[in-house]
Amino acid sequence: MTTPEILAIAEQKGMWAKDRILHDIRAQILGAVPARWILKDIAAQEFAAINGWRACDLFPLSRLAKQRSGRTPLQWPCDHALAFKEGRRAVAFVTQPYAGHDAQKIITEVRTVADIHGLALHLPPGGVHASIHFPGRTLFLVMTRPGVVVRWLPEQQTSRDAHHK
Fold first, then answer.
1. Which domain holds residue 24?
2. How far apart are CA 22 and CA 160, in angstroms?
3. How many domains does the chain have?
4. Structure confidence by residue, pLDDT tens digits, 53-92
5. What is the pTM of this model?
6. What CA–CA distance (Å, rounded) separates 106 from 116?
7. Is residue 164 part of a domain?
8. Is residue 80 part of a domain?
9. Helix/strand/coil (H, E, C) string of the chain?
10. Which of 16-20, 21-25, 105-109, 125-129 has the weakest average pLDDT?
């Protein structure tokens, strides 16, 4: 049976059946990709959408800076990075480093990098551990040009920061 035939049968059985079949087709296509990666991609896309951005390939922080900025230190806590554009213009860079026991030290290091490039550092209102990569274990630190407003996913607004109770 072909996909169009399956979908025609599903339509006769109702919307739920159609959604279930589409889900199964996606699962077959994406079978080689671990589910956690798919969920992370979906969360990143939702974060982009809520801000009117789109996810893109990583770019150097200097592209995000308005004017010529300093050099990024070779060693800085950049892990599980995400990049976003608004139209064709770089708008945000996210780093999700593991914090260990000293989240404040990592935040300070990232803030220093943001300052070098004249960028603003944004932290989720629900706690810095409200990350997409590994919620509760990695930080979610967003760098933008000054004046950019960051909107947060509902989970990032209400999550409890397990390391800062």
1. 1-32
2. 34
3. 2
4. 999 998 888 888 866 656 666 567 788 999 999 999 999 9
5. 0.73
6. 16
7. no
8. yes
9. CCHHHHHHHHHHHCHHHHHHHHHHHHHHHCCCCCHHHHHHHHHHHHHHHHHCCEEECCCCHHHHCCCCCCCCCCCCCCCCCEEEEECCEEEEEEECCECCCCHHHHHHHHHHHHHHCCCEEECCCCCCCCCCCCCCCECCEEEECCCCCCCCCHHHHHCCCCCCC
10. 16-20
Taking only the tens place, the pLDDT of each residue in 109-125 is 999 989 988 999 999 99
**pLDDT tens digits, 41-57:** 888 999 999 999 999 99
Radius of gyration of the chain (CA): 19
Tokens of 93: 């860079």
Which two structure tokens, joined as six digits, stand for 57? Answer: 């390939």
